[in-house]
Amino acid sequence: MQICLFRDVDTDKWLYLCPMSDKLTPQQRSQCMSRIRGKDTKPEILVRKGLHARGFRFRLQDRKLPGRPDIVLPKYGVAIMVNGCFWHGHKGCRYATKPKSNVEFWQSKIQRNQHRDEVTSAHLEALGWHVITIWECELRSADALQSRLDVLADEIRNAGRAKDERSQQQKASAAAMKKEREQMLERQSRLEAEINAMFPIPKRIRKESFND
Predict the structure, then answer these.
(1) Which whole number is the average pLDDT over 9-25?
(2) 96 and 22 in a common domain
(3) Among candidates 137, 98, 134, which has minimal Cα distance to 117?
(4) Is the domain of 28 the same as that of 55?
(5) To the nearest 10°, the Cα dihedral for 101, 104, 107, 109?
(6) CATH number where 98 lies
(7) What is the pLDDT at residue 211?
(8) What is the DSSP letter of 98?
(9) Are residues 115 and 21 in the same domain?
(10) More confident call, 16 vs 132
(11) Are residues 13 and 73 in the same domain?
């Protein structure tokens, strides 16, 4: 039987109690889906705890960035999106099943989420951020969770090193441009001095120019 995951807000526990079939009435479906949180979900909390245990410090849902990424590590230039497989339409994932009732509504909603994810990632990358997407299915077992967090930690560190290299290159490029400009101004000054020496302006003309 296909099932979906939701959080019981009263007990703060995750339950697998909603069969994804036509047996659910519209009211039951609405209740099931409405109890799934949009932020501070269990996958997000697991990733946060794992990163914190590995020595990383981060921000949450930074409003200054496009799409308000779930986790932001400014030091490393990394933005992390923790996506639910169902809500974000994880391709090829067995947990990304669609309800058989009200199909058009759910298909449209998931497609909008996918499009928004693509646009958000493009905007973040254009701003120089390294975007990492973590899927809920990657965190379902303890071993899978630890393995994914280890890979994530390596990816964050690599992104941080790449960011430092880009920063150093930009500084070197800026210093080279500044030096080139100074040399150009120096050459221009010498050339003007040579021209003035070759074609001196009479004092009378200079005086009249200043008076004008």
Answers:
(1) 48
(2) no
(3) 134
(4) no
(5) -100
(6) 3.40.960.10
(7) 58
(8) -
(9) no
(10) 132
(11) no
Tally the domains of the chain. 2
pLDDT in tens, 98-131: 777 788 888 899 999 999 999 999 999 999 999 9
- Whether residues 25 and 105 share a domain: the answer is no
Same domain as 146, residue 80 = yes
Q: How far apart are CA 4 and CA 32, in angstroms?
A: 9
Confidence of residue 31 (pLDDT cuts 50, 70, 90): low
CA 54/CA 45 separation, integer angstroms: 14
On the question of pLDDT at 163 being above 80, the answer is yes
Angle 185-190-192 (CA atoms, 0-180°, nearest 5)? 95
C-beta of residue 73 within 8 angstroms of C-beta of residue 58:
yes
Question: Are 149 and 163 in a shared domain?
Answer: yes
Boundaries of domain holding 20: 1-36
The chain-wide mean pLDDT, for the chain, equals 82
Identify whether residues 103 and 198 lie together within a single domain.
yes
Residue the block writes with tokens 């519209």:
26
